[in-house]
């Protein structure tokens, strides 16, 4: 049995289903195994189970006795998970299940993302479907695919497939929060080719490494001002170029669009005659940056090691333009919401920067709860990168979810939370992409709400799920299902 320590936790129904799910590799856009896993799960329970055209799985369960007069509920979570690991972790996400352990009140994974986002939501729905003692109305379990890299599952779900009146999205990451709105997003990609030039004689090569950053969710964590490995690497390279004529052979920074980049690597060359001065300046700037981030990024490491000089480097003019464009390109919070206190309205994450073999690629994820503000930031990025000759493509646009403070299911959840916890919940919109906004396009009359257990560090290897929160959340789910309004 995999992960026995986690399976022993309470509530066992939830944690055992989570352990079952985490044994199945489920990267975004490679969900074939987890789709089959869910279809087998539904079929083995004897429940109506179907897969739609894009790969979403829907399982229907009739109401329990005495609940037949309640509105049908859609319980929804996404099957895919963000795959991130530390550079020194040997792990194959395509073939291995997540290795979990208990650390005090937290469930963590060994050197990788945990998959609690949104695996705990999926496990919740599985446990309800399998239960014989939980009172609930008729349920449609909707398991969407590819939420993390494009929301293509939600986008591909056609109108008329779902029959439910109320949607419970289980993808919020604070157990005292009830989500009523979210940001939309768009992928911005800048690319261009460059000429590769042979490196002159008399150069010394270096490998530059930035690592140890927290990373995290590029929506929920963007407000924290955490270090972005791509921006920090560019700062180091810009300084080396300005002061020592440094030449770039390659850059490899960040990974997924929705993860704040934790690591970046570059191979560069400087005149050997300036070797000592370059190293002195590098260390001084690295120390200054670490001092700037000492409270936010205690484990930040900026280092270099001498290596063989590269055979070739990028052409000088393009290199200069790239360094200036990456310096100018906006990263982080662009605008705070004037309507909701402490809510980020618009932001950008410079998620991935690669320079190699004559090609530059820069991947960003721009988010906003206001369409016009999102367009404004996309235009600012497009202008910045087009000035250095890049082709800029904006794709994968998805809408936000506008709050409905008169929602009937919101009133149920607020009242139930207060009665269970003797305190008011936080009713809020979030600066992350939830599928509610997309689903609402084809199901405009559906009453939607989002909630979930406390999860920290999502989209990073520091992802962890609170054990006590999971119990609190599970009790909340059960009580909410008992109190669904009548038809």
Provide a descriptive summary of the structure in words:
The chain is of the alpha+beta class. The protein folds into two domains: 4-183 and 400-482, 3-Layer(aba) Sandwich (Aminopeptidase); 186-398, Alpha-Beta Plaits (2-Layer Sandwich). 30% of the residues lie in helices and 28% in strands. The chain has twelve helices and 23 strands. Strands 9, 11, 12, 13, 14, 16, 17, 18 and 19 form a nine-stranded antiparallel sheet that branches. The two termini are 43 Å apart. 50% of the residues are buried.
Residue-averaged pLDDT? 96
Largest sheet: 9 strands, antiparallel
Helical proportion, percent range: 25-40%
- What is the structural class? alpha+beta
Main CATH class of the largest domain:
Alpha Beta
EC number: 3.4.13.18
Protein name: Cytosol non-specific dipeptidase
GO molecular function, one term: metallodipeptidase activity
Keywords: Cobalt, Hydrolase, Metal-binding, Metalloprotease, Protease, Zinc
Short note summarizing the structure:
The protein is α+β, with helices and mostly antiparallel strands and 487 residues long.
Keywords:
2 domains, Alpha-Beta Plaits, 487 residues, Aminopeptidase, alpha+beta, 6-stranded mixed β-sheet, 23 strands, 12 helices, single chain
Write the layout of secondary structure elements.
Blueprint: H1 4-7, H2 12-22, H3 32-44, E1 48-51, E2 57-61, E3 73-78, E4 100-103, E5 106-109, H4 116-130, E6 139-144, H5 152-156, E7 166-169, E8 177-182, E9 184-193, E10 196-198, E11 203-211, H6 229-244, E12 247-254, E13 264-271, H7 275-292, E14 301-307, E15 312-314, H8 316-328, E16 332-336, E17 344-356, E18 359-368, H9 371-386, E19 391-398, H10 408-421, E20 426-430, H11 436-442, E21 447-450, E22 455-456, E23 464-466, H12 467-482
Parallel strand pairs: 3-6, 3-7, 7-21, 8-20
Antiparallel strand pairs: 1-2, 2-6, 4-5, 5-23, 9-18, 9-19, 10-15, 11-13, 11-14, 12-13, 12-17, 16-17, 17-18, 22-23
